[in-house]
Amino acid sequence: MTARAHCVLAPNPGVMTLDGTNTWVLREPGTQECIVVDPGPLDEAHLGRVLDVVGQQDGRVGLTLLTHDHADHAAAATRFAELSGAPLRAVRAIGTGHDDLGDGDWISVGGLDLLVVSTPGHTSDSTSFLLPAETALLTGDTVLGRGTTVVAWPDGDLAAYLRSLRRIEALCGAGELTRILPGHGPALPNASAILDYYLVHRAERLEQVRAALAAGARTPWDVVERVYADVPLEVWGAAELSVRAQLAFLEDPDDRGLAPA
User: Fold this and answer.
1) 110 is in which domain, residue-wise?
2) Which of 14, 32, 206, 251 has the fewest Cβ atoms surrounding its Cβ within 10 A?
3) Which residue from 131, 141, 76 is spatially nearest to 107, judged by alpha carbons?
4) Does any domain span residue 236?
5) Is the per-residue pLDDT at 257 higher than 70?
6) If DSSP codes are grouped into helix, strand and coil, which group holds residue 22?
């Protein structure tokens, strides 16, 4: 994808995972140590392919990171740590027992530097990693390569998610970020444009939810039937999670001012 970032696609395509989970292998050119972000589902063949990419130029894994603790990103984390012999770090990754990263931490492996950028909202532990040398942000599920993400209520929180989008938008405005390396879907070369789209989309969805409530919707499922009628039925369950997050957001007057204009 870039001079420092190689994507290994996991074989878990689906409605929620798009083409599959993107496992990222990061390496400073000319060095051997790599950082692996999101080993993905527990699939031995996939982990073997990741290690094959790492092994090019006699490479080795220096560190494994997680963007969040959902199984399609993190189920293989412990097994991959065993296979690679490298340490694993994450923010509140309950399934792995790791909570050893914090917002603003700098990570350096083999001359490659990453900045930990806390981006909760999709989940409470959602974390992005800024790769300054590429002005790129690895976003996990906070920003996807296609479509928009689910705010996975009750762990996910729309107010937190909007703050995270604004924070990423500010990185774009400061010139620190130009491209997105997502957890699913293709890389996005114009980070600023995709942040604009995400914020507009959230504002439109909130207006649609308000309209559904005004028209008589009484339950989250009522809202889904009105607002998400144009999306496949197989994603309505995920849509209901986002609707519950939207309703909680609209009920809190302290949050409403965060809504995009």
Assistant:
1) 5-204
2) 251
3) 131
4) no
5) no
6) strand
Structure tokens at 136: 């790129």
Q: What angle do CA 206, 211, 213 make, to 5 degrees?
A: 95
Find the CATH number of the domain harbouring 101: 3.60.15.10
| Phi, psi at 230, each rounded to 5° | -95, 5
Is residue 100 over pLDDT 90? no
> Number of folded domains in the chain?
1
**Is the Cβ–Cβ distance between 110 and 91 less than 8 Å?**
no
140 band by pLDDT with thresholds 50, 70 and 90: very high
Report the C-alpha gap between 40 and 32 in whole angstroms. 22
| Axis crossing angle, helix 236-251 with helix 191-214, rounded to the nearest 10 | 80
Do residues 53 and 84 lie in contact, with contact meaning Cβ atoms separated by under 8 Å? no
Token code pair at residue 188: 């996005």
Q: State whether the Cα torsion 156-158-164-169 is positive or negative.
A: positive
Amino acid identity of residue 140, one-letter, is: G
pLDDT tens digit string along 17-66?
A: 999 999 999 999 999 999 999 999 999 999 999 999 999 878 999 999 99
Contact 73, 149 (CB under 8 A): no
Residue 73 falls inside a structural domain: yes
Taking residues 98-122, report their average pLDDT: 92
Angle at 132 (CA atoms; ends 127, 134), nearest 5 degrees: 105
- Residue 124: half-sphere exposure toward Cβ, Cα within 13 Å: 7
Predicted TM-score (pTM) of this structure: 0.92
Q: How many Å apart are CA 92 and CA 89, to the nearest integer?
A: 9
